[in-house]
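Researcher: Please generate the 3D structure of the following complex. Treat every line as part of one assembly.
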Amino acid sequence: MIGGGKNSPRTQKGRIMDKRHFDIELDNLREKLVLMASKVELLINQSIESIRRKDVSIAQAVLGMDKEINLLEIEIEEAAIALIARHQPAAGDLRFLIGAIKINNDLERIGDHGVNIAQNAVVLAALPDVKPLADLPWMAGLAIGMLKDSLDSFISADPGKARDVCTRDDQVDELKDQIIRVVLTYMMEKPDFISHGLTLILVSRNLERIADLATDISEEAIYIHQGKVIKHGIEKQSG
Amino acid sequence: MTDTPGNLPRFNKLDVRNLDLFYTKFQALKAVSIAVQQNMITALIGPSGCGKSTLLRCFNRMNDLIPGVRISGKALLDGEDIYDPSVDVTDLRKKVGMVFQRPNPFPLSVYSNVVYGLRVAGVHNTSRLDEIAEKSLRGAWLWDLLKDKLHQPALELPLDQQQRLCVARLLAIQPDVILMDEPCSALDPIATTKIEELMMDLKKNYTIIIVTHNMQQAARVSDFTGYMLLGEMVEFGETNAVFTKPAQKLTEDYITGKYG
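Model: Done. Output below.
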């Protein structure tokens, strides 16, 4: 704040102004987005845990967490839109607000994929144990790692980490294809495994989408912090 | 989204109900009704001649000075009718101060400007005057800049400091409501930012109503916005709502630049 007393106005020519009220509002929005990110990360971890432990109660808790995330998504989106409408932000402030809206949307969708996984956990819990979960735990570890690093890259303004996340997406895609191949073979061999196998394929599909969205978040983090667009194999300086 | 002060209960500082105002035969305000909440900044926007300054001047009865003005309807300050015959207009203007378009300090020193109102009110105790002068200048973020220049002529200050001195002069008489009529129209963007930040600081203790031609300024600083057109209050509501999803097509046309 530009203010009197000890924190007096230092807004003379040539000096950077102290924090404006607008900056405080941006900080508040950033804090809400970090809260959203932490909730989504927890939800995904719990959804994977519900699969690993075949624990229906964890799966049900995930559904409750998703409701909180949905409400927070609306709150963040409305706050970002209001800030754009009222302050006509430019440069880094504008990139942050546009990026915040996109990341917010990505996070909410990641939450939905976590819910899908938890619902699959409920199905799996009712089925007899057959084969180990193929490479699903490994794939889940990779997807969660990408999600965590993408959020870190956004929060701690680390474009290097964001770029690293983008390079890991192919590995997750390959794992998904591999899991589908293995599970399909199993299903052909043992038709009574079909229900089980389809559920595993759905889980792998959800994990693959989480990794895709983590990549999107990383791309947004690079755009916010460096103004560079690196989507679709294209890299260019914005504007 | 602006940081509204703490958990203060919201209540209406000013209530305007069906207010009509005529300049002789011309009707400048048509059945205007709004509720101005305490410790909030309320902005009045609209094209030139829409009645926003007229409405602002109703709140401290500045329109009384214009011949041929007729008013009907109610304007209540803390539930008391501003236009009741028993109201002492001087007392009203102590409670409802005004900052004008161009900074208008008196041709006196900085110090004399700030304590002017107090001296007129009969306060002559030097230590009391010094104390209030410091407090008022601090309130307008001028103390650090001017504490060693208190006896400099006020008219030598840069324009934004003159405008903030006018705010300090108001604060000295401890008003409840501060009316601002285009307070930044004579200022450059940096000076404008200083006044806007000051307003957001002042609302912790005062209720502020600002008339501005600058729609973006209304969007940036205010909690509530009223859009006026041809003497009517087309829309009045929370600024976030007015600037993101206005209820009236006329408001949308104005704030998106299609009209006005």
